[in-house]
Design a protein that fits this description.
heterodimer, A: alpha/beta, Rossmann fold, 6-stranded mixed β-sheet, 4-stranded antiparallel β-sheet, globular, B: about 300 residues, alpha+beta, 2 domains, 4 strands, about 10% strand, elongated
């Protein structure tokens, strides 16, 4: 599914963010990337959805070398990847329904398909009754579930989550992790970046640890 | 791309553009009003130039050169001269006006006040030749060249064709055209800047949304197209508003103007906007708006890639 081979990222050609990273993630895996702040977890995820390009090395996603992908091919790639952020990244002026539908509208899906898929997804994450609410009116956990609904409404092959529970209390964090587990059970490969090692150990047996030296260390 | 998908995306872009205009209603209204003012000035200037041009054309169509003969010129000399003039390729018509006919015309033009002519011992008016030129020779330069080719020797006493007036009017027209051109260029640049800056503000106010669009896989065109539409819509609406102002002003205050212009400058000299012109003004507004927004969001990819 994902093969990262000797990937490095330097900012301004001098400041190292990631050095010589190599690992493989198989289809259907539920993988945690852990490490202290500044270890490069977010950078690694950003490389995976082409928000950044590696300075050297290769990233192969589903047989495609995305480290050399043309800029014009990035949107299509991103439609096959769901991304969830710590700060949710929802559009505050749009309702829950509109935020989720948004991911389908840009693909050119028909109105009926959009309605059906958004209803199904919101029902699945338990937010159907809040479909007309605006994000600022929701709790942190609910907002994160909206973000997850938006990320999975397209049935992505891969779901990337960058500190998805960073703004949530322990109970809500557990709820979100259970949701990820359920999504993974449907066949979606999930990569979660978190500094919470305990949570990683609780939910997955595949953990990639990044050290402050920005390289993989045994977990 | 699947045509169904393309239609759905286009629908999304149009809906997005309209929603964004509605959400930023105050800013959109200010921009559209500014464009409307700019286009009103431009269209009014265009109308002034059109009317000046039409007047010049009407005047040129009616232009005639009058050659006055000497009082003692013989019939034979006059006929020889008239034959020579009538044979020139520029001349459409050359009509001899006898002193009697000239006096009769003068009396007619002084209707009611022709008593002032009663004390005259003899007819003081000379015979003359009224010359009309063919269409291609009805320009200032061609008229001057034609007049220069007539020798001011007997039997010719004088030649009259409103030279000074014509020169002044042509100079005034050229000046007005230059001012109109400069004003037009200035207003187009100003309008372009207004639209570009408004779209930049809208881009800035929606930077989070754009970032999210990119994250969920929206292509460059999908992000930019609604902004292009917004610019084009604002430009067209501004131009339409300007046309409504111009049409309204013409209807309300200028009903008598056509009659006044026609009285002073000849019938048919008053020109107003035609429907194709109005369509061209609207299209110009749309294109200007499109250009402003196009360049305003041109660098969006670099910012949000």
């Amino acid at each position: 599914m994902i093969h990262i081979h000797q990937a490095s990222k330097y900012y301004n050609n001098a400041i190292p963010a990631l050095v010589d990273i190599s690992f493989k993630i198989n289809k259907g895996d539920f993988v945690f990337i852990t490490g202290p702040s500044g270890a490069g977890k977010t950078t690694l995820l950003r490389l995976m959805f082409c928000a950044e390009r590696p300075s050297s090395g290769e990233i192969i996603l589903n047989g495609v070398n995305i480290s050399r992908i043309k800029p014009s091919a990035i949107p299509a790639l991103r439609r096959s990847i769901g991304v969830v952020f710590q700060d949710f990244k929802l559009i505050d002026s749009r309702t829950v329904y509109e935020n989720v539908a948004f991911a389908l509208e840009i693909t050119g899906a028909g109105a009926k398909t959009i309605k059906k898929k958004v209803w199904q997804t919101l029902k699945w994450v338990g937010l159907l009754q809040k479909k007309d609410s605006l994000p600022p009116c929701l709790s942190g956990g609910e907002q994160q579930r909206v973000a997850i609904a938006r990320a999975i409404v397209n049935n992505p092959l891969l779901l990337l989550a960058d500190e998805p529970t960073g703004n949530l209390d322990p109970q809500l964090s557990l709820d979100i992790m259970r949701l990820f587990k359920a999504i993974n059970a449907r066949g979606t490969t999930i990569v979660v970046a978190t500094h919470n090692r305990g949570m990683a150990e609780q939910f997955s047996d595949k953990i990639i640890c990044l050290s402050r030296r920005h390289s993989i260390e045994p977990c | 791309m699947n045509p169904v998908n393309a239609a759905a995306r286009l629908r999304y872009c149009v809906a997005s553009a309209l929603n964004n205009l509605r959400r930023n209603l105050a800013l959109s209204l200010i921009t559209t009003s500014t464009i409307a003012v700019m286009f009103t000035i431009c269209t009014a200037m265009l109308l002034v130039l059109l009317n000046l041009s039409a007047f010049m054309q009407t005047w040129a169509d009616q232009l005639q050169i009058i050659v006055y003969f000497e009082m003692k010129a013989s019939e034979k000399d006059m006929q020889r001269f008239e034959k020579e003039i009538a044979g020139r390729p520029e001349v459409e018509q050359a009509r001899h006006v006898s002193p009697e006919e000239a006096m009769s015309l003068l009396k007619r033009s002084l209707e009611g006040q022709d008593g002032i002519l009663y004390g005259l011992p003899d007819n003081p008016l000379p015979a003359s030749l009224e010359i009309r030129l063919r269409k291609p020779y009805l320009t200032n330069e061609a008229v001057q060249a034609f007049v220069a080719g007539i020798t001011r020797e007997p039997p010719v006493a004088d030649i009259e064709y409103g030279q000074r007036w014509l020169e002044r009017f042509v100079a005034f027209f050229e000046l007005a055209r230059l001012i109109g051109l400069l004003l037009g260029v200035f207003l187009i640049i100003f309008t372009y800047c207004i639209i570009a800056n408004t779209i930049r503000l809208m881009v800035y106010s929606r930077r989070d949304e754009i970032e999210i669009m990119k994250l969920v896989g929206a292509g460059s065109l999908m992000v930019k197209f609604p902004f292009w539409l917004e610019g084009a819509l604002q430009g067209s609406c501004g131009a339409v508003a300007a046309l409504l102002i111009i049409f309204g002003a013409e209807k309300l205050a200028m009903d008598n103007l056509a009659a006044i212009l026609n009285f002073y400058f000849g019938s048919g000299s008053y020109v107003f906007l035609t429907w194709p012109m109005a369509a061209a003004v609207t299209a110009s507004g749309g294109l200007l708006g499109l250009a402003g927004s196009f360049f305003a969001v041109n660098r969006l990819d670099a910012h949000y890639s």
